[in-house]
Amino acid sequence: MAEKKKRDHFGSKIGIIAAAVGSAVGLGNIYRFPCMAGENGGGAFLIVYLGIVLALGLPMIASEFMIGRRAQKNPVGAFKALASGAKGWSIIGYTGVLCGFLILAFYTTVAGWTLESVYKSVINYYHGKDLATIEQGFNDSINLTFRPLLWQAVFIFISAFVIAKGISKGIEKYSKILMPTLTVILIILCVKSLMLPGAFEGLKFLFKPDFSKINDQVLISALGQAFFSMSLGMGALITYGSYISKEDNLVTTSLTVGLSDTFVAILAGIIIFPAAFSFGIQPEAGPSLAFNTLPMLFNQMKGGYLFCLLFFILLVIAAWTSALSLLEVIVSYLIEELKLSRRKATIYSSAGAFIISILAALSLHNDSSLTIFGLTIFDGLDKITSMVMMTLGGLFTVIFLGWKVKRQDFENEFTNGGTVNMRLRKIFYYIIKFIAPAAIAVIMVSQFII
Ligand code: TRP
Fold first, then answer.
1. Which residues in the chain land under pLDDT 50?
2. Which ligand 1 atom minimizes the distance to the CA of 227?
3. Kind and range of the H or E element at 132?
4. What is the pLDDT of residue 1?
5. Which atom of ligand 1 is closest in space to residue 323's alpha carbon?
6. Who contacts 43 (Cβ-Cβ below 8 Å, separation ≥6)?
7. Pocket test for ligand 1, best of 99, 103, 155 (most atoms within 8 A of CB)
8. Residue 149: C-alpha distances to residues 141, 299, 325, 354, 439 (Å)
C-alpha cells in the first residue's frame, strides 16, 4: 500500500515503549486498580487479574499493535483497509472513537481531582488534619461547581498541547521524560508505605487469595480492569501501533508494555493497602483510597510535604500520558478520515471531551439528578465503557485478526516478514483465533446468566 502523505512515526524503540507504557499506566493503575481490588476481595481479584493479563491481555496488546502497524492508519481506517472489502468491520473503529470520548469524560474528572490535590499539597492543606476532615474536604471539593471544571479544563488543555505537536515531538518526547520520573517516585513511596506499622495486614489483603470470593462479578470486573489498564479494546494501541516502525519487534514491545503496566498496578497496591490498613480505612473506600489515605501517610512521614506533592504530581503525569492516547485515537481519525488539520482535530476533540466531562463531574454532586441506568453519569460512563464497549471492542478485534485478516499477513506482521518470533507465531495464532474470543465471550455471557 503506497503512502500518500508521510506519516509521523515514533523515533526510537525507547520512545514507543515510553509512549505505550505511558498510555497503559495511568489512573487505572494507581486509582482504579486499588478500588477494584478493594471491592472484589483483594487477593482473589489479584489472582484472576493476573490470569487475565497473561492469557488475554498480552496477546491482545500485540494484536492491536499488529493491526495498526499493518494498516498504517487510525482505528476506523485500519479496519476498513484490512477487511478486504467486507463492510461493517469499521464499526469497531467508530465505537472506539466514541469510547475515547466517553472514557475521556470521566477520566478528565478524576484527573481534575489530581490537580486539585496538587494544589492542596502546595498550600500544605493536609498538614495536621485527621482523616475525617480530609475526607470531608475531598467531598466538599467534588461538590463545588466551578473549581473542578477549571481543573478539568486545565487538564484537557495540557493534553491537547502535547497532542497538537504530533507523535515524535509531542507524545514521544514528553513520555520519555515523564515515565521514568513516575517510576522513581512510585518506588520511593512503596518503601515508605511498607515501613508503616500494620503494613503487613495490607499486604495480606492484597496477596492472600480467598478463593471462595471468586465469582462472576470478580471475573467481569477483572476483565474490565485489565482492558482498561492496558488501554485495550478501543483502538488506542492500534493507533500507536500505526506509528511503530516495521523493524521493531512487536512481541517484546507488547510484553514490556503489559508487564510494566501490571507491575505498576501491583506497586500501587503495595503503596495504598498497607497505608489504608494502617490508618483504618476500609479497602472498599473507593476514591478515598488514593486521594485521602495517602495524605495521611504523608502527614506522618518526615519530608511528608514533599512526598505528598510528589505523589499527586505523579498522578497527574500518569493521567496525562494516558489521556494522550485517548485523544490521539479521536485526533488521528479526524485527521485521516475527515481530513482535518492536526490543530483543528485537536481543538474539536478536546472541546468535545471537555463538554461531556462537565456532565460527568456535575453528576457527582450530592443533589444531582444526572443519572443513567440508576448510576451517576460518572459511574455509568465508567461501567459502560469498561464492561461493555471495550470488552466487545476487544472481542471483535481478536475475531477480526484471527478470522478476517489473511493468515499470511498476520504472520508477516507478527514475525516482521519472517525474521523474528518464528516459533511463537503458531501458538499466538491459535490464541487469537480460538482461545481469546472464547474466553472473553464466556466471561461476558456469564455476567448475564448468573
Ligand atoms: N490505561 C489507562 C489507565 O490505566 C487509561 C487509558 C488510556 C485507556 N487509554 C486508554 C483505557 C484506552 C482504555 C482504552 O489509566
1. 1-3
2. 13
3. helix 131-143
4. 43
5. 7
6. 204, 205, 206, 207, 208, 209, 210
7. 103
8. 11, 28, 22, 9, 40
